[in-house]
Amino acid sequence: MHTRLADSIEASQRGELEAIVRACVHCGFCNATCPTYQVLGDELDGPRGRIYLIKQVLEGRKATRLTQTHLDRCLTCRACETTCPSGVQYGRLLDAGRDVVDRQAGRPFSERLQRYLIVRIFPYRRRFAAVMTIARRLRPLLPPSLKRKVPAATPPAAWPESAHARKMLILPGCVQPALAPAIDLAAAKVLDRLGVSLLQVTHGACCGALPYHLSAQERALALARQNIDACDPYLRQGIETIVSTASGCGVMAKDYGRLLRDDPFYAEKAARFSVAVKDIAEVLAAEDLSSFQAGGQRIAFQSPCTLQHGQRLKGLPEAILERIGYRLTPVADAHLCCGSAGVYSLLQPALSAPLRAAKLRALQAGSPDIIATANIGCWAHLQAATQQKILHWIELL
Q: Closest by alpha carbon to 168, among 278, 275, 290, 255?
């Protein structure tokens, strides 16, 4: 695809963005796996159409609210990247395009306020925990649509105290400690059983994915730098790995090296950090799991987009579950997004709801005993719409 970017595009981005746009050969394979195109059937609500829209803006055409609407509807699931025969890095192009479009087109006050509150509350775990505490107290008074989004509090439990020679790190993240603290605790217990101490980096921050995808990129990079500073002393001492139990956080953390490659103070540290990050499935895939034996329960696994399309770890948790004795039920259209996509379910509820309904039908079709996932956002989104128990897969171990 021929392109000539406008002079207003930063020189540091120009080469990468031109290469991404030019890699697109208009084949349309991406539309076949795009969730929003499946729902809406509009060319401009598929990856190919959005690439054209972004290309026009990058070449100097003024962004409009209509352009912004089509980009807003994208889940950033990156299923199109898995499908694309030309290797178009659509996610990177989308983030850059959204940033330019948001600056040019602006937003109504209601949208600005909503995004302002999200960006200044969700990434900060103490603020988010305070909001959740209030919401739980008011839960009986909330309308059903909101009540379902407020899970019950989990009683605190002790972190394993064993001191092993092998040590790994885990960052607290933002919403997971308030929504489902049992996930990280389960990871700590599993690793403790394998002779690994999982150390909590309590002064770490949100990975930055949420503000980054909402065009608050400098705020996101500030959070990334905070995490790098928190973990770098441990990495210099020989800590094995930074463990991620949320696939959405993992895909962002693995990208710090690229995002900060031009930062003279953080480029080297960011690269070291990203290399050290591993999803909990990557960690366990290399371990002897013979001491874990399941009773043959039937599990439907929901593979988050950030795991299968972002980190390209499709099938890894499923293989581990089968390895220890669980039976995996078939899930149709497993490549399609559940509609969570960070805060997409809050910003685009009309599109998110049918995607969630379709995902739950696919997961429940095989009559599983339990539904398992690998990302906190998917867990919260799906659990809010079903009485069936949903767990992070590490809790099954």
A: 278
pLDDT score at 322: 94
Sign of CA dihedral 66, 68, 74, 80: positive
**Structure confidence by residue, pLDDT tens digits, 121-140:** 999 999 999 999 998 998 88
Contact 159, 188 (CB under 8 A): yes
Q: How far apart are CA 366 and CA 277, in angstroms?
A: 34
- Do 198 and 242 touch, CB atoms closer than 8 A? no
Is the pTM of the predicted complex or chain greater than 0.85?
Answer: yes
d(CA 304, CA 314): 9
Domain 11-105: give its CATH code. 1.10.1060.10
Please state which of the four CATH numbers 3.40.50.1860, 3.90.1150.10, 3.40.50.2300, 2.60.40.3080 is assigned to the domain occupying 289-396.
3.40.50.1860
Q: What is the mean pLDDT of residues 90-94?
A: 93
What is the per-residue pLDDT for 17?
A: 86
Query: In terms of Cα–Cα distance, which of 307, 291, 278 is closest to 372?
Result: 307
Eight-class DSSP state of 165? S
**What is the domain partition of the chain in residue ranges?**
11-105, 108-287, 289-396
| Residue in 106, 100, 102, 105 with CA at minimum distance from that of residue 8 | 100
What are the beta bridge partners of residue 200?
170
Tokens 């540290």 found at: 269
Spatial strand order in the sheet of 390-392: 327-328, 298-301, 370-373, 390-392
Q: How many CB atoms lie within 10 A of CB 102?
A: 20
One-letter amino acid for residue 230 of the chain: A
